[in-house]
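Request: How about a record?
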Amino acid sequence: MKDIQQILKENKLSVTDTRTIILKLFLKSKGALSHAAIEKSTKAQLDRVTIYRTLQSFLEKGIIHTIPTDDNSIQYALCKGDCKEGEHNDNHIHFICKECDTTYCLDHTAIPTINLPKGFKSEEVEIVVKGICEHCNE
């Protein structure tokens, strides 16, 4: 696992306390995080706007990606592929556990081929599977 300073420097971001705190949360998380979860985890150490700006810079640099949810909120997860500034290549399935509400990136699960009609061009595929995760299924 890369260390926090290395990730920030590779993405041409200065190492700040805020970025370090938020990136540490992502590295320790077993699943995706919402803005509210990050805010709660930082225990009022960081304000809502600072968290939002940090998440936006991480998105722009390809450090994290977004995951759609049923309630139109956003979850964020670390990019594990070859994402870079302005270009996300993190095509994988997301799994949402209905018991613990954790969102997982299933990096090693193949995305099915989608045959689009002539004239259509796919630019992004989002697949969300809902069910019970291995931890809740025990």
Summary: The mean pLDDT is 86. The CA atoms of residues 82 and 136 lie 31 Å apart.
